Structure formats: structure tokens, C-alpha cells
Amino acid sequence: MNNFEYYRPTRILFGKGMISQLSSLLDKAQKILLLYGGGSVKKNGVYEQVAKALEGYNYSEFGGIEPNPEYETCMKAVELVKRENIEFILAVGGGSTLDAAKFIAAAAKYEGKDPYDIITEEYEVKDALPVGDVITLPATGSEMNGNSVISRASTGRKAAFVSEKVYPEFSIIDPQTTFSLPVRQTVNGIVDTFVHTMEQYCTYDVNTPLQDEWMLGLLRTLIQEGPKALAKPEDYDARANIFWCATCGLNHFMSLGCVQDWATHQIGHELTAFYGLDHGQSLAIILPRLLQNQKLSKSEKLAKLARNVFGVEESVDLKAAGVAIYKIEEFFNFIGMKTHLADYGIDAGEAAEQARKALAMRNVKLGEKGAVTADTAFEIIRNS
Fold first, then answer.
1. Is 4 a member of any domain?
2. What distance in Å separates the CA atoms of residue 51 and residue 257, rounded to the nearest whole number?
3. Of 47, 154, 221, 290, which is least packed with CB atoms within 10 Å of its CB?
4. Is the same domain home to 250 and 341?
5. What gap in Å lies between CA 204 and CA 189, rounded to an integer?
6. DSSP string, 322-344
7. How many CB atoms are closer than 10 A to CB 96?
8. Do residues 160 and 203 share a domain?
9. What digits encode the pLDDT tens for the residues 50-64?
10. pLDDT digits (tens, 9 = 90+) for 90-109
11. Which of 134, 156, 177 is the last residue of a domain?
12. Are residues 146 and 16 part of one domain?
């Protein structure tokens, strides 16, 4: 097991009616920015619950955060933050709204020329406004980490930054808020959580049996509970289990001491930037082909997954690994997720060439061993 340091300061309030606890978490002396997306929180009653909890508080509102939050939109919010001397950002909605809140919180304190520097690997966030959230979509796990992914229209790039300075102070999770989610968003969230777990699990063995069992258990839970929520959207237990999977899927607790990958995400980001695919859609397209491309180096972990998650009895690791890849794609298709670029009217050859050029410009070497180059990504996408 590799050395590790773990720090997660976020307070989690999980369960029915927990939004009513919001007022106890906020300081009335602070000026608050209520940040939300395209209006779904007003349709599902969450906004009304939050507004009730904020009675007597001094707050402003900013709506219109996109599903893939845009840098340009975030900077408009930064202007409001500075103009109105905002002291705390409350994100209400899905992971994209929270990702935007984290960037806005850091950008508001940035003293350099271009706040987009925050999203480059060279910059370390030194200060940020405090952030809290009422999270309504199980997917990104942003509610319990310091990660944020932001897109920039002018460059056509989607990129991430990570900082301890933007951990949410608290996250309120009421699974009832997911009852009205469209099927597409529910499926995207299941896939996103599944792939988060795979990025941390499916590398090579460094003697982490406990962590492996946690991650395999999460995958089994998603496979069991996902179809229940899709068949019966108001199944509270299924929704609760899926939401907690999403949170645990990227609070990095399960993978402490492990080796991690993240190539699927980085290649998927290119497809989202080029074609506007949902994040979950891009991951479902890339993961099976990336696993096939890297099957030999990942065969031990894939075989373990095949036997422990899908009940495969094949004794030869490489053969079991192939079955695991097939079963993963089969599960995505079973819950209604398409897994080929052609399903979205996208030419795989064209997409592969665009991604190769973009990744080559940044001279990337992705994956747990740095084995996924721009040319490797070309092959993975061309086969998608």
C-alpha cells in the first residue's frame, strides 16, 4: 500500500428533510450568494425549501449555471461577488453548480491577471471564499471533495482543478430531491459514479485488499440499485443508496494508498468539449474501449472485478478481464446508456483526430503508468 494523507473537512447532512437544517449552518452576519443552475430547483421545490431556510439572511442570487459550467458564466458571478461583497457561496443543484461555486470562490480571491490560471496545473489556489451546498444530483461527488471541472468556450477546453481551499464546509443530501430527475440525468449519474470508481480501482495491485473490497462493493451496489430507481423513481431506499455511492465514489476514501488512472475522464472531457456530449455519455463511450486497449496491464484487477461483481467463474485472468469489459458495457446499455459515438451521430475517425491534436498540443501521458498518449487516445476513440 502506498503512503497517503487524508483530509475531508466537509460536514454531511444526509436524509429526508435535511434541507430544513440549512439555517443552522449559516452565519447571519455573512452576505451570501445563492447559486443555482437552469431552474430545475425551482420546479422540484428545492428552491422554495432553501428560500424558507434563508428567511432573515442577507443574500443575493445568481442563476443560469450550465450543466458543464462555463468559465464566462462563472466570471459574471465573480463580478457580482466582488460588487456586493459576498462572503459565502451557497450552491443549490447538481455537481455542475457546485463545481462552478468552487471556481467562483477561488476566482473571487485571485489576484493575478487571468483567473483561468486556477484551472491550469501550474497554479496553486491560495485562498477562496467558503462554500456550502444543497446537492440534488448524485453523480460528480463534488459535495465531498475539492475538485472542480470548468469549460471555456473561447478555447474549447474542459479542464479541472483540485484544491483543499474549496472543500464544501457542509453538504446537505436529501435523496427525495432526486425523485423528479429525468431518466437521462439518473442514468448519467449512475455511469459517472461507476466510472469514478473504476478510475480508482482498475489499475494494478499494490496490496490494498480492503480498498478493493470497498470499491467492488460500491460497483455491486450501483448494479443492484440503479435499475430499481429507474423502474420506480420514488423508491427512497434505492435513491439513497445511489446518492451515497456517488458521494463515496469521489471523496477518495476508498482509494487511499491505491494507484489511480483518470484517463477515461480526461479523454471524455475532449468529447464533451468538441461535441457537447453529457459527461456521463462521454465516459460510457470511452471506458469500454480504454479498458480493452489497456486490458493486459489491467487484467488482474479486471479479473477480480469479473469474479466479485459479475460472478464470472473463468480462472484465466486475461479471459476473465475480457468478460468484465463486456459486462460493464452490457450494464450501461441495460440502464439505457448508449456506448458508441455513432449513437450520437458523431464520426469516430473525426473525433479521434480532433482529440489527438488537442492532447498532443499538451503533450499528455495519461493513465496510471503514463501509457495513454495522444496516439493511444486516437485509437481508443476511433474504436468507439
1. no
2. 42
3. 154
4. yes
5. 26
6. HHHHHHHHHHHHHTT---SGGGG
7. 26
8. no
9. 999 999 999 999 999
10. 999 999 999 999 999 999 99
11. 177
12. yes
Cell of 126: 491560495
- 21 within a domain of the structure (yes/no): yes
pLDDT exceeds 70 at position 121: no
**Rounded distance between C-alpha atoms, residue 347 and residue 351, angstroms:** 6
Counting Cβ atoms within 10 Å, is residue 239 exposed (0-12), middle (13-18) or buried (19+)?
buried
Is residue 254 included in any domain, yes or no? Answer: yes
Instruction: For residues 184 and 230, give the distance between their C-alpha atoms in angstroms, rounded to a whole number.
Output: 10
pLDDT value at position 169?
Answer: 97
Angle at 138 between CA 246 and CA 253, to 5 degrees: 20
| Cβ-contact 334, 190 below 8 angstroms | no
| 179 touches 45 (CB < 8 A) | no
Burial (Cβ within 10 Å: 0-12, 13-18, ≥19) of residue 64: middle
> What cell was used for 80?
457580482
Query: Does residue 247 fall inside a structural domain?
Result: yes
On whether both 237 and 370 belong to a single domain, the answer is: yes
For residues 294 and 300, give the distance between their C-alpha atoms in angstroms, rounded to a whole number: 12
Instruction: Give the phi and the psi of residue 130 in degrees, each rounded to 5.
Output: -70, 150
What is the residue range of 308's domain?
182-382
Report DSSP letters for 129-191, one per residue: --EEEEE--SSS-GGGSSEEEEEETTTTEEEEEE-GGG--SEEEE-GGGGTT--HHHHHHHHH
Q: What is the pTM for the complete model shown?
A: 0.94
Claim to verify: residue 212 and residue 285 sit in the same structural domain: yes
C-alpha distances out from residue 106 to 85, 102, 170, 214, 352, Å: 14, 6, 17, 33, 34
Instruction: Pull the grid cell for residue 284.
Output: 460510457
Cβ proximity of 17 and 175 under 8 Å: no
Q: 84: which strand partners?
A: none
115 and 208 housed in the same domain: no
